[in-house]
Specification:
- Helix 3 packs parallel to helix 4 (122-137), helix 4 (122-137) packs parallel to helix 6 (173-197) and helix 6 crosses helix 10 (285-297).
- This protein is of the alpha/beta class and 303 residues long.
- The longest helix has 25 residues, at 173-197.
- The chain has a single domain (22-297), classed as NAD(P)-binding Rossmann-like Domain (Rossmann fold, 3-Layer(aba) Sandwich).
- It has helices spanning 31-42, 54-67, 83-92, 122-137, 139-144, 173-197, 224-233, 239-242, 244-251, 285-297; strands spanning 22-26, 46-51, 72-77, 100-103, 148-152, 203-207, 258-263, 268-273.
- It is globular, with a radius of gyration of 18 Å.
- Strands 3-2-1-4-5-6-7-8 form an eight-stranded mixed sheet, sandwiched between helices.
C-alpha cells in the first residue's frame, strides 16, 4: 500500500499562527502523525515528535526541517505500550506548559495474542489506554498551557460496542482495533464533558482521518482487491489529506466534538464536524470507561 504514494488532493488548511505554542504529537515518525507534525511546525509551533524509534524520529525531523527550515522540533522516546515509558516521558516534559497534545499513535496487530508490557491487548493498550495514561500524566503541563487534547478515532469505531471491561481480551484483532478506537472517542467525549463541568481552560476533541494511506494496515489490512478499488475510486487519501480533520480539531476556535472527512461515507474529502459513532452516545458509557481505565493505568485524571 505504501509503495505508490497517493498524491494530495485537498488544498492545505490555513492554520493560525502557532508561534510559541508547544505541541506533542505521538506516532510522529510516519503517516498521519508525520503529516500533522509537519503542518503544525510550518504554522510556527514548537513540536515534540514522540516516537518509539529515535533513529526514525531523527530522520523525520531532518525531513521536516528540509521542508520547513524554520521548524522547531524535539525528538523524544515514548512506548505507549508501557506505562513506565509513558510516566518517564511525562516526567521529562513536566517543566514546560503543553498547549496541544495529539494522541495520534496507533497500530493494528496481526495476532490477537500480542500484549503490551503491562499485559493489555496490544491494540487497546497502545491505541487507547496509552493515550489515556499519557493525557493523565501530562495533565499539570496541559493545565498550565490551557491546552487542548486531540484523540484519534477511526471509521472502524462505528462497528464496535465497548465491553463492560476494557481490560478484557477481544476475540479478534479486528474487534480489538475497533474497540480501541471507539474507546478513544468515548474518552475524548467524557473528558470534554468533565472539563466543561469544571470550567477548565483545557479542551478535548476527537477526530478520525478516514481511509488514509498509512503503514498501520500494511500487515493486517484489507485484501488487495479492496485496496485497488479504494485507490481507483479515490476513497483512499494521502496522509496529508487524512491529517486535515486532526488539524481542524487541533486549531478550530470553537471545536465540535468530532471531526472527519465529509465525502464517501467518511472515507475521504474535506474535513468537517461528523456524527459520533453510535457506541459513543450510549448513556453512562463514558463514566464506566473512565473508571476502569483509571484502575488499569493507575492514573485517575481529575480535571
Amino acid at each position: 500500500m505504501t509503495d505508490r504514494p497517493i498524491p494530495d488532493r485537498l488544498p492545505p488548511l490555513t492554520l493560525p499562527d502557532l508561534t510559541g505554542r508547544r505541541v506533542i504529537v505521538t506516532g510522529a515518525s510516519s503517516g498521519i502523525g508525520k503529516a500533522t507534525a509537519t503542518a503544525l511546525a510550518a504554522a510556527g509551533a514548537d513540536v515534540v515528535l514522540a516516537v518509539r524509534n529515535l533513529v526514525k524520529g531523527a530522520a523525520v525531523a531532518d525531513e521536516i526541517t528540509e521542508r520547513v527550515p524554520q521548524a522547531r522540533l524535539e525528538v523524544e522516546h515514548i512506548e505507549l505500550g508501557s506505562l513506565e515509558s509513558i510516566a518517564s516521558f511525562a516526567e521529562r516534559l513536566a517543566g514546560t506548559p503543553v498547549h496541544l497534545l495529539i494522541n495520534n499513535a496507533g497500530l493494528s496487530s496481526a495476532s490477537s495474542q500480542e500484549v503490551t508490557s503491562d499485559g493489555f491487548d496490544r491494540q487497546i493498550g497502545v491505541n487507547y489506554l496509552g493515550a489515556f495514561a499519557l493525557t493523565c500524566r501530562l495533565w499539570p503541563a496541559l493545565l498550565a498551557g490551557a491546552g487542548r487534547v486531540v484523540v484519534l478515532g477511526s471509521m472502524m469505531a462505528s462497528r464496535a460496542q465497548l465491553p463492560a471491561d476494557i481490560g478484557q481480551r477481544p476475540e479478534s484483532t479486528v474487534s480489538a482495533y475497533s474497540i480501541s478506537k471507539l474507546a478513544a472517542v468515548v474518552f475524548a467525549g467524557e473528558l470534554r464533558h468533565r472539563l466543561e463541568i469544571a470550567a477548565s481552560p483545557v479542551t478535548a476533541v476527537a477526530a478520525h482521518p478516514g481511509w488514509s494511506q498509512t503503514a498501520i494496515f500494511d500487515t493486517n489490512g484489507p485484501p488487495a482487491p479492496i485496496m485497488w478499488i479504494g485507490k481507483a475510486t479515490g476513497a483512499i487519501q494521502s496522509p496529508a489529506d487524512g491529517a486535515q480533520p486532526v488539524l481542524l480539531a487541533a486549531t478550530a476556535v470553537d471545536p465540535a466534538p468530532y471531526y472527519g472527512p465529509l465525502h464517501r461515507a467518511g472515507a475521504s474529502g474535506p474535513a468537517g464536524p461528523v456524527a459520533l459513532p453510535p457506541g459513543a452516545t450510549e448513556p453512562g458509557v463514558g463514566e464506566l470507561l473512565w473508571k476502569r481505565s483509571a484502575e488499569l493505568t493507575g492514573c485517575d485524571l481529575r480535571p
